[in-house]
Amino acid sequence: MIQRDGILEMTETPTQLTVLKARDFASDQDVRWCPGCGDYAILNQVRKVVAKIGATKENSVFVSGIGCSSRFPYYMDTYGMHSIHGRAPAFASGIKMANPELDVWVITGDGDSLSIGGNHLIHILRRNFNVKILMFNNRIYGLTKGQYSPTSEEGKRTKSSPMGAIDMPLSPLSVALAAESSFVARAVDVDKNLGSVIERVAMHEGSALVEIYQDCNIFNHGAYSYATDKDTKEDSVVRLEHGKPLIFGKDRDKGIWLDGNRKPRVVELGHGIKEEDLLIHDEHDESLAFLLSRMSHPEFPEPMGVFYQIKDKCYEDLLQEQVDSAIEAKGEPNLEALLNAGETFEVKA
Questions:
Q1: Domains of the chain listed by start with CATH number
Q2: What residues does 304 pair with on adjacent strands?
């Protein structure tokens, strides 16, 4: 709608006239992360995915908390909110309840979501809001200059742990699965499969968490070099494909096998072990997904891709069903009647 000579005229919106491309989702803000930060790669992939799936600017919302990753909403030419430390899931839940038609994304980090925000993260996942959560995990507090985080490895020496961290690190995917998230995945910031994983999460209906291994080249550079360097990654990563055996290695000659106690073992093919003997990935098996979430480098190759996905009713849909049932039973709501129901009193001057 535009105004000409004081008269309002209806016009078509830009999204009705053109198909948006990745560059159309770039805002006019200068992207200000450290040169070489893995956040740049994630930002580029998200822009490509939202364009590919036909998202619109007016129906997309990016919500963040506090941290380096939380600058993300400024760099997307969509609606967005830079909220409070750890509380992005609470804001996203409210936005989704108020307008279920919106595509709501949460951008967070390992410190933001697993420390002060741990409680909020658990509850948005268990409620199965149709919200997409991208967790940038660099195993460090970057914005506050290099303190150890909830995912930092034991023994990690930082400014806040000069003698080495003594905390047991959290596994984000194990937490998500325990919280009953209906979609759980992992990817690496510079890996070729990052875009396809983000596309899968974008198309999922329900709570979804993707852990993205992200390099902080200032305070924790090389934390995931085993999964990114061309000389090591194929022996350090196993790519998950639904219905296919867990095979890895430069020569595709290694695999994951379950022994008699259902414990995973790394085996070599051709030594009495055939492909059909290996563990077969099933995205709908929650127990298998949890087992995979416990496999970590260097004892195992780290799984990458979609660990788990199921279809279930979303919280906002169930809430609307309750509202509709209440209206059917009691009639249309009357706010004035509600405010004046029961005992009231009048304050006189």
A1: 2-223+313-324 (3.40.50.970)
A2: 239
CA–CA separation, 291 and 287 (whole Å) = 6
Strand partners, 188: 213
Nearest to 182 by CA among 315, 310, 290, 313: 310
Q: Residue 126 and residue 144: Cα distance in Å, rounded?
A: 30
Q: Read off the tokens for 49.
A: 């995915």
Three-state SS string over 15-46 comes to: HHHCCCCHHHHECCCCCCCCCCCCHHHHHHHH
Structure confidence at residue 17 (pLDDT): 54
118 membership: H or E segment, kind and range: helix 118-126
Length in residues, the chain = 349
Task: Name the helix (H) or strand (E) containing 237.
Answer: strand 237-239
DSSP 342: S
Which pLDDT value is given to residue 315?
98
Q: Which amino acid is at 222?
A: G
Residues 6 or more apart whose CB falls under 8 angstroms from that of 40 comprise 31, 33
- pLDDT higher than threshold 80 for residue 344: no
